């Protein structure tokens, strides 16, 4: 069942080009971003939407945080994202014109299910679930559904579910933009092309594994790590820190890099490795200055960059470069190296990668 892999997590990381290709198959088949991708009646629901409220837990929540950047930038609709266990227990000011999007790999997470029920009790009837398990509880309770087609995810740490959630959410952002009249045919063609090329770009990122193994060996003896990103890559830093702590038990925290000098910089010394997600985007110069702040305190930098990022390795600065910059879908590609780093650090520490202590695959209790 594992084939050439040592763990389900490693296998599932390597399945991502196929999982993504399967998840976008319907979009590629339609050769357009059409509401029917979300269900037969989705046109009338999505057309009236005035905003988006995303609700999820854990890694699925980080997919939601990434989607907020896409939804607001591409569709112009306001978007908020909330952890399900918080949403369900507070007095929410509901706007039923918003689309409520729940994201769940298993479709059975209790807090997400209860948050959806609560949203419905507040008058939300435009509900969409992004889910990997057909006919599970959350999609059954939702009006619209987009199934990610990652296939069964067995490793407790979510990997291929996350990247397929991202492509489903990107598809949602572009579809909403089209319904808002904000998508030119040229942009639609560009986004289709970006999606079509994504499985190949993800494969290129997977090919970085030997370099990442080298980094993981340096990480294995560490007690703590810091992950930094900015903009749409900040949630990928969060996801990288979660993966590392969950399977290797190394304490890791993620910050938007601009927050460094508002507190966490005090932690940085030569014992603190700092992972930076630094593709070439409009924030790269700012990320570089954040990196200098780390170097000046003796912190060792591990930088995931891409072809265009224009910096190389130097003393205390290790750079791994993805072969090409993939534009708006860059967070999907940058999820791969942080998954591999966590996996190989855990392997070097000898932890039970597929079944980390204290955790369950599907959290059906509070
Ligand atoms: C982390 C992880 C968890 C899940 C979370 C939500 O690797 O797997 O954080 O993402 O428990 O689960 P789902 O997506 O099934 O609702």
From TrEMBL:
Q: Does the keyword Transmembrane apply?
A: no
First and last residues shown, out of full length: 245 to 610 of 610
The Gene Ontology terms for molecular function here are: glutamine-fructose-6-phosphate transaminase (isomerizing) activity
Name all SIS domain ranges. 42-182, 215-356
Asked if the record carries the keyword Nucleotide-binding, the reply is no
**Protein keywords:** Aminotransferase, Cytoplasm, Glutamine amidotransferase, Repeat, Transferase
- Report the function annotation for this chain: Catalyzes the first step in hexosamine metabolism, converting fructose-6P into glucosamine-6P using glutamine as a nitrogen source.
Q: What is its EC number?
A: 2.6.1.16
So what does this thing catalyse?
D-fructose 6-phosphate + L-glutamine = D-glucosamine 6-phosphate + L-glutamate
Where is it located? Cytoplasm
Q: This chain belongs to which protein, by name?
A: Glutamine--fructose-6-phosphate aminotransferase [isomerizing]
Subunit structure as annotated in this protein's UniProt entry: Homodimer.
The residues annotated as the active site are 361
């Amino acid at each position: 069942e594992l084939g050439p892999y040592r763990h389900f997590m490693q296998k599932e990381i390597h399945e991502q080009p196929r999982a993504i290709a399967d998840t976008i198959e319907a979009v590629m088949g339609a050769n357009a971003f059409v509401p029917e991708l979300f269900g037969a009646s989705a046109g009338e629901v999505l057309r009236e939407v005035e905003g988006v409220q995303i609700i999820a837990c854990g890694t699925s929540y980080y997919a939601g945080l990434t989607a907020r950047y896409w939804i607001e930038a591409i569709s112009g609709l306001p978007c908020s994202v909330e952890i399900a266990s918080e949403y369900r227990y507070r007095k929410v000011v509901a706007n039923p014109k918003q689309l409520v999007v729940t994201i769940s790999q298993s479709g059975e997470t209790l807090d997400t299910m209860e948050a959806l029920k609560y949203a419905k009790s507040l008058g939300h009837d435009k509900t969409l679930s992004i889910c990997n398990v057909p006919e599970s509880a959350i999609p059954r309770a939702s009006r619209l559904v987009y199934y990610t087609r990652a296939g069964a995810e067995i490793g407790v740490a979510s990997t291929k579910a996350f990247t397929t959630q991202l492509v489903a959410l990107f598809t949602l952002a572009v579809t909403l933009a089209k319904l808002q009249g904000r998508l030119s045919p040229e942009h639609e063609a560009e986004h289709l092309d970006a999606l079509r090329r994504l499985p190949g770009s993800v494969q290129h990122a997977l090919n970085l594994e030997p370099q990442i193994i080298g980094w993981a060996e340096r990480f294995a003896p560490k007690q703590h790590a810091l992950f930094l990103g900015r903009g749409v890559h900040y949630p990928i830093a969060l996801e990288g820190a979660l993966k590392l702590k969950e399977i290797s038990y190394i304490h890791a925290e993620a910050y938007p890099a601009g927050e460094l000098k508002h507190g966490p910089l005090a932690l940085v010394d030569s014992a603190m490795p700092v992972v930076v997600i630094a593709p070439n985007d409009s924030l790269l110069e700012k990320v570089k200055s954040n990196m200098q702040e780390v170097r000046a305190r003796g912190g060792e930098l591990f930088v995931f960059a891409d072809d265009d990022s224009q910096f190389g390795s130097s003393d205390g600065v290790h750079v791994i470069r993805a072969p090409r910059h993939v534009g708006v879908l860059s967070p999907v590609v940058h999820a791969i190296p942080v998954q591999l780093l966590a996996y190989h650090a855990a392997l070097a520490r000898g932890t039970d990668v597929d079944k980390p202590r204290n955790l369950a695959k599907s959290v059906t209790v509070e």
